[in-house]
Amino acid sequence: MDIRGSIVALVTPMHADGSVDWERLRKLVDWHVAQGTDAIVAVGTTGESATLGFEEHDLVIREIISAAGGRIPIIAGTGANSTEEAIRLTRDAQRAGADACLLVTPYYNKPTQEGLYQHYLAIAREVDIPQILYNVPGRTACDMLPETVVRLSKVPNIVGIKEATGNLERARELLERCDDGFMVYSGDDATAIEFILLGGQGNISVTANVMPGQMAKACAAALSGDADGARALDADMSALHRDLFIESNPIPVKWALYEMGLIDRGIRLPLTPLSAPAQDRLRQTLREAGLLEVQ
Description:
The chain is 45% helix and 13% strand. By secondary structure, it is α/β, with parallel strands linked by helices. It starts with a strand and ends in a 7-residue tail after the last helix. This is 4-hydroxy-tetrahydrodipicolinate synthase. InterPro entries: Aldolase_TIM (IPR013785), DapA (IPR005263), DapA-like (IPR002220), Schiff_base-form_aldolases_AS (IPR020625), Schiff_base-form_aldolases_CS (IPR020624). Catalyzes the condensation of (S)-aspartate-beta-semialdehyde [(S)-ASA] and pyruvate to 4-hydroxy-tetrahydrodipicolinate (HTPA).
């Protein structure tokens, strides 16, 4: 597997009643292809994986794969805090035709490092599809340490990691200790360009939902070694990197896409719509980025 560049962590558009908006989902996929997004993560954190049932989860992944039609790779979010559940979701994604799977560390139950190793090893042995680890301790209360990642990188179909701590020293350590060919992706928009310039292979991005073309260009510049060009492109998105996390993801990014006219307002409890003060701030940031008309 050789997926590089700007990988959007795609939202799951919903109607105001919370039901999935299949038409808007297909349109988002077409838009990302046209804008130069390099790959799509389907039903990750930003896609509200935590509130989709098994059937919906599988259906959204299938719809995104169908809409993409082979034009760009699709990485299916299939992580869970139950190893058995993660195996089931990963197997379903493989059957649907996903190019790879992204598996978040088990949340809430706080496994040991050995538990993490055994969890991922079990999934890799059961399902023969390229698998990407996902470390985001700020959301899971579980930090997969570099030594565990190095152990797992030796498993043939564990091909990479999304490292979302935003810690560039951690990124540097992973890049130094893991074998060549093991893909190391940023999961933190604010530090992603510097991460790629260190040797990372791409960015699994929230900001790419609203500025896909700009993010694709910035990642491409960084991958080519054009540090000045990449940093200049990234600077234009820096306020978005900040304000798309003004409240818990994906609350702000779904509201931003609604304001841009790309999706309806739907979001599922326990997530709630963006608060009024945060709307004012994010609306101004969207205007400054040229994504909304100045009134």
